[in-house]
Amino acid sequence: WMLKTFATLGISVSRRVHRFTNSTFNAAASAVAFTPSATYHSYYRFASLRKMSAAGDDTKLFRSIGLKDSTLKNIGKNASTASTLKQCIADAGVSNGCDASVGKLIFDIATAKPMQNDNAQTHRKQLLSYVANGGIQNVVQLAAAYKFITQNVTFDAKKFEQSCGVGVVVTEAQITQTVDEVIAKYKTQLSEKGKGCLGVMFKEIKSTLPWADGKQMSAIFNAKFKAALQSSGFDPKKNKCKKEKKVEEKKQAAEEEEEEVETMDKWLTGRELEVAKNSESQLAQKKAALAKLGLPADTFLSRFPPEPNGFLHIGHCKAMTFNFTLADSKNGSCYLRFDDTNPTTEKQEFIDSIVENVTWMGFAPWKVSYSSDYFRELHELALRMIRNGDAYVCHQSDEQVKAERDSFRKRVNVTPSPYRDRSVAENLRLFELMRCGYFAEGEATLRMKGDFTSANPNMWDHIAYRIMYAAHPKSGDAWCIYPTYDYTHCIVDSLEWITASCCTLEFENRRESYFWLLDVLDLYKPVVWEYSRLNLTFNVLSKRKLLVLVNDGYVRGWDDPRMLTVNGLRRRGFSATILRDFCNRVGVTRKDNFISPALLYACARDELNRTCSRAMAVIEPLKIVITNYDAHKVEDIECPDFPNTQQQSTHCVKFSRVIYIDASDFQSGQAKNKKFYGLSEAKSVRLKYAYQITCKEVVYKAGTQEIDYLRCEYDAKQGKTVKKGSKGFITWVSEKDARPAEFRLYEHLFTVEKPGGDDWLKLLNPQSELICKGFVSEYVASTMADKQRYQFERYGYFVRDPDSDSSPH
After folding, report:
1. Which of 2, 10, 208, 459 has an alpha carbon 20 to 30 Å from 784's alpha carbon atom?
2. For residue 391, how many other CB atoms are within 10 A of its CB?
3. Is 285 helix (H, G, I), strand (E, B) or coil?
4. In which element (H, E) is residue 734 found?
5. What gap in Å lies between CA 606 and CA 609, rounded to an integer?
6. Biggest alpha carbon distance in the chain?
7. Which of the residue ranges 63-77, 141-155, 203-217, 749-763 has the most confident prediction, judged by mean pLDDT?
8. Positive/negative CA dihedral, 354, 356, 357, 362
9. Could you give the CA distance from residue 577 to residue 581 in angstroms, rounded to a whole number?
10. 446 DSSP assignment
11. Which residues pair with 227 in a beta bridge?
12. What is the pLDDT of residue 152?
């Protein structure tokens, strides 16, 4: 058995539209009879997770903390926000209601961007307790709190309170007095600059009273500033031009910062070109063609057009989600079309994988098509271009074509191809020779006669056909000339009567050549719209770089859990619904950006928290002998599958004299450390769902300082009853119940957000995969075939890995 971790971070993300030792393991393995062992994988490991439930009808709860109906309406649109807010209310201890001012701050914590930070998530409960008890009373203090908790791994209460002004109360009288003092200080400048002093003055007041309520301070300052300005003798006419200029600059800046929130219909309009307009006859042809297909004239058709020269990655997930859901929103249909025009790089293996992944993602194509389905039509249209004088056969080498294009670019000694003005008859004869295999590869091409005076390089006589003596995965050896992407893409869009041809922004400068080609061929023209490609930090999506990582052995293969290929994401445990949710949250815009993987983890956590039953595991085992527990006794301990929810399902694990805990849950010399909740000499902790134990002795291996095991005693009188206020809970696995497992713990593939440059491989994270050997309970081993995924308490989410089928562990 093998599992890999799905430890997603507890982060609420707001959507923006625009922008162990082997000896321990082996000793235990020989002590018990094992079923086939298990291996587990993890991409994040940390002490605890915030529990989140699915968003439901919690309107009454949210109203009880003073949220307005308009806010409730927005929350209702986002299940993730609702789930996070519900958990924040519970963590703050105000499920029975609170003052609106407190509720507003709780809502801010549930939705604020700084709370996406790993440290912030760890300290969220402490922050909420300060809000609930009145220690933090306004957004100014809250902003300071965000800064503190995002920058500190550990939570020092004293430093936190000093940094955030906890307990500091600024009265209205103090604000008034400070405002008066600052206005008096700036009396002279006020008469000269007028409102030009406003920002400086308010900044000074703010620095003097950093913990004052901002709204109250602004109201007092604005009223007093207005009165002082009127009595200062300031003449606004002298500064009118300057003022108007500043207003215009601010307006422009605001427009640049404004989020792009437009309707999809407006987005799809794109950059309009006169040549992109369809004639009445072209629209009539489309109507007749759709009728033959049994479709209404206004049917919306889109397409997802991957090249079958590799495996899909998360960027393709965004593209397919966008195109399929766009068509669905218009009550239309979406093609899955393979852009298979280069037989030297395309394989049936890739085609099969793409079809399987599209189906796995939950999308059903209206039709699966191939550009190669249209090879004959594409050839006939090429002949039409030659006859119309819009294409010619060229014999220039790659170096000569490059020099030609350089001359176009520099506008110096412009030298178009010497074959550009061949006669139609000669071009037809030569193109037929190309088709018959007369020329060698690279000896001749068919080029489109564009406009070399255009500023757009895509109009500079791009190649339409090239010679390639390679069998095609679908058409076999029927052809030795193959059309290029620039020639094929737009024509097949037209032949399939696509309504909206959507692609990523790097293709935007091809729009002009796209419509030019359809225009000279008198073909129907789809709408074209470009959107930003998906980029994730701490990883790469470049096909060239992915090939290096796989071929040079830096990762396990195309399905390595650290890779952002769809197969890698599936192996890591992401479900199709998680990936679709992620793509929908990222949204579709025309602004290039990099997305933090924290958003992907948050989407995963929202789903897995509801669907993964809890279980216990030990990743780095430390043996414990409970000396006062009967050596022959074994009892069943009942554990809930979903703690803190209404689901009542449970499972049982064994408890015995010898158990294993995680090595990190024991630290020597921490008996008096109230902030350490683990086990130490003479210190007691609660075994999750079981007894309280106290460490009596640390036994070391002979002649070393390496711990062999711990001698502990359990509190038989207290039993399994948990005292109110207990904080030390640690997970465990009984020796009688333990089954060996390998855990693969994953972190970011790269050490920097945007790995690039010639030395990008040096930026690989050497700690991106850590392998540990530990234990799971018999419950996990026996139910893994059905459940597949678990949340191992205090570790994270894990999923069975396919290596289990061939691994000895």
Report:
1. 10
2. 26
3. helix
4. strand 732-734
5. 6
6. 103
7. 749-763
8. positive
9. 6
10. E
11. none
12. 82
Pairing type for strands 732-734 and 527-531 reads unpaired
Q: Three-state SS for 292?
A: helix
Q: What is the pLDDT of residues 340-380, one digit of tens each?
A: 999 999 999 999 999 999 999 999 999 999 999 999 999 99
Q: Are 597 and 345 in contact (CB under 8 A)?
A: no
Q: pTM of the entire structure?
A: 0.68
The pLDDT of residue 139 is: 81
| Helix 214-230 and helix 172-185, axial crossing angle in degrees, nearest 10 | 40
State the Rg of the chain over Cα: 33
Length of the chain: 809
Annotation marks residue 16 as catalytic: no
If residue 152 lies in a helix (H) or strand (E), which one and from where to where?
Answer: none
Annotated catalytic residue 543: yes
What is the enclosing helix (H) or strand (E) of 193? Answer: helix 187-193
Question: 712-749 in b/e burial notation, b at 16+ Cβ within 10 A?
Answer: bbbeeeeebeeeeeeeebbbbbbbbbbbbbbbbbbbbb
Which member of 224, 543, 590, 610 is catalytic?
Answer: 543
**Token match 């039709």: residue?**
367
For 553, counting Cβ atoms within 10 Å of its Cβ (0-12 exposed, 13-18 middle, 19+ buried), the class is exposed
Q: What per-residue confidence (pLDDT) applies to 539?
A: 95
Location of structure tokens 């700036």: 186
DSSP annotation of 615 reads E
Using CA atoms, how far residue 404 sits from 443, 444, 461, 630, in Å, is 17, 16, 10, 89
Mean pLDDT, range 534-543, rounded to an integer: 93
pLDDT at 82 over 80: yes
State the catalytic residue, choosing from 260, 307, 681, 747: 307
Q: 131, 105 in Cβ contact below 8 A?
A: yes
Nearest of 359, 273, 271, 296 to residue 497 by alpha carbon: 296
Angle at 729 between CA 728 and CA 732, to 5 degrees: 140
Q: What is residue 613's DSSP assignment?
A: P
Buried/exposed 433-471: b ≥16 CB within 10 Å, e otherwise:
ebbeeebeeeebbbbbbbebeeeeebbbbbbbbbbbeee
Position 795 pLDDT exceeds 80: yes
Strands across the sheet with 729-730, in order? 729-730, 684-687, 692-700, 707-714, 621-626, 658-662, 732-734
- Out of 533, 590, 720, 754, pick the active-site residue: 533
User: Tokens representing 788?
Assistant: 């597949």
307 catalytic, yes or no?
A: yes
Helices H / strands E in the chain, number of each = 28, 26
Backbone angles phi, psi at 166, to 5 degrees: -65, 130
Given a cut of 60, whether residue 271 has pLDDT beyond it is: no
CA 526 to chain centre: 31
Q: Tokens 């000279």 belong to which residue?
A: 520
Token pair for residue 786? 């059905």
CB 571 within 8 A of CB 560: yes
Alpha-carbon span 330 to 263, nearest angstrom: 13
- Tokens at 338, concatenated: 């393979």
Across-strand partners of 332?
none
Sign of CA dihedral 232, 236, 238, 243: positive
